[in-house]
Amino acid sequence: MGDSEGDLLNSPPMEKLGAGGYLSVWKDYGVYGIVGAVVVGILIPLVLSSVFMGKKKEKQRGVPVQVGGEAGYAVRNAQASELVEVPWEGATTMAALFEQSCKKNSQYNFLGTRKLISKEFITASDGRKFEKLHLGDYEWQTYGEIFDRACNFASGLVRLGHNLDSRAAIFSDTRPEWFIALQGCFRQNITVVTIYASLGEDALIHSLNETQVSTLICESKQLKKLAAISSGLESVQNIIYFEDDGTENDISVSGSMSNWTVSAFSDVEKLGKTSPVHPSLPSKNGNAVVMYTSGSTGLPKGVMITHGNIVATAAAVMMVVPNIRRSDIYLAYLPLAHVFELAAESVMLAAGCSMGYGSTLTLTDTSNKIKKGTKGDASVLKPTIMTAVPAILDRVRDGVLKKVEEKGGSAKNLFNIAYKRRLSAVEGSWLGAWGLERMLWDVLVFKRIRALLGGGLRFMLCGGAPLSADSQRFINICMGAPIGQAYGLTETFAGATFSEFDDTTVGRVGPPAPCCYIKLVSWEEGGYKSTDKPMPRGEIVVGGFSVTAGYYKNQEKTNEAYKVDEKGMRWFYTGDIGQFHPDGCLEIIDRKKDIVKLQHGEYVSLGKVEAALSTSNYVDNIMLHADPFHNYCVALVVPSHQALEKWAQQAGINYRDFSELCDKAETVSEVQQSLSKAAKTAKLDKFETPAKIKLLPEAWTPESGLVTAAFKIKREQLKAKFKDELQKLYG
């Protein structure tokens, strides 16, 4: 298994999340623990429920509002009678926000990285090599020091010869230098093009050429890839690379790179320090970033994000998340080229928090790259705030539950009792469970589970894709932290809706963020109307300060998705279908592009069905396919290795490898029955349930190009790659 396959997001949960460590959570609990749990779990509620029982009053989180533009049902955040535009007066651009926050918090820790003590390669029995890292504590730089570095880099960039009328691109994994380079570019009003480190060659060439990038900032490990495509890059003149521990600063330049000026990041900083250049600061309407979406179809589109968009989303999140403060510690590990992470780090900057950088390969004590005996990033940093995409949380949940099942006996009983009692508290069936009993369950069961992510989490931000109700509840209970489930897009700089910390419901994405309005516009063809009762339904349209300027050099697509109303407000048509609950919270229920009409006229919502079928224990990933020339659906399924192999062992199925197991008729039948059961539970119609399936043994990863960085399936790419398999299913 290579490093990319060992990514926490891509890997089987037990192997990478270290769920084996959970054995210690339950191994010491015996009869006395169970008896004590029963006493607390049954007798105390009987005493306290009479005192604390009561129906919770529903809080109004969003309120209807009259807006311009196309007719529909519009809602604003109940906390903000006027849309918020800035976190504080004067912070109208990211350059201004950065400078003001750095000066205000100059002596406090800002960016931290772990010291690399040593690294080694171990060889597995099959000959594959794995890199293991021995990492030390976090080493910190203050806000003042980071501001100086950004200013030095900005000056160095100019002295290096960067044309201030052209763009710079950052092509790298998340790290402090990524953030410093971004802020340095903003100091000279340079628009930054952000590109996923995992982007394929064709998409990379397209992105750099379309935006006419003259300076490319990257990791040293990307130099070979750039050398290989150098003949296809039309405008690149300067390459600035981040040095890595153990990498020589003097990088040899191949012949294909001889036309470029290649410099180390530290050398550019030194150049700027010795020859400072006066800053050229941007305006709020100036383009801060051209962010290339990972794209579920075709080549990626570049979204033009203004400085005003970024500060508006930061201001909105600071209003919604309770009391973000200087003492908070944020663990940064998701891709900064994704709007979710860039928005989150912008919020932390505005709030004066500390940000410790990690990676998905070193996140926990048993992550793929962590040397045995070395602590993972979360254990060392002990973050109070984290972001996560649903893929991570789903695997955390699955990993713990599978280990509980394997342990069995009194440990399983104790966990189940604790979980049910805490679930009753979260769902508000009795209020006493939040006090004395909560403390006991935390000590007996959940404290050690929480240690997986450092043990200090007080709030978690989740976005990038829908989070299942089961996973949301699990994280609430086992991690002891509320989840702010956000809904947003690159086109709205992540700012659309945000569920509030005291909202214990699941399956919803909260009220509109305070920086924007959400409007539901009727979609007659799909049967969704803004006048529907009891809840208005329709296409989700976002209007306000977070709505971006459009697609770079793509006016046709911009005109399709963006509209400006008679009052000058900009609206983005998301293509998602939502409904508003009475308290003003939004629920995502469908997507226009995912609606397919079958041969007999029935409409199938691919995304809705996939979400329902994903509840099967056998499903790691799934793509439903509906053909207008047939009256039934089929599905491609990536099965869970662990669940399927466990079934095969119990059923006495013999097989050489996982691929052979997936091809067996009895295996297909078992998974098909599980899907049918999941469909029945979700009350799907017969025509929505796949009549035939194909099991695919290889996982879909961002590196394979079959899913986005946020793990949304790329439907067109999957259809092209598995064209033959789909044809056979319909044959």
UniProtKB/TrEMBL annotation:
GO terms for cellular component: endoplasmic reticulum; membrane. The keyword Repeat does not apply. The gene is LOC115986705. Keywords: Membrane, Transmembrane, Transmembrane helix. It comes from Quercus lobata. It comes from the Eukaryota. One of its GO terms (molecular function) is long-chain fatty acid-CoA ligase activity. PANTHER family: LONG CHAIN ACYL-COA SYNTHETASE 8, LONG-CHAIN-FATTY-ACID--COA LIGASE. The chain crosses the membrane at residues 29-52. This is AMP-dependent synthetase/ligase domain-containing protein. SUPFAM superfamilies: Acetyl-CoA synthetase-like. Residues 133-552 form the AMP-dependent synthetase/ligase domain.
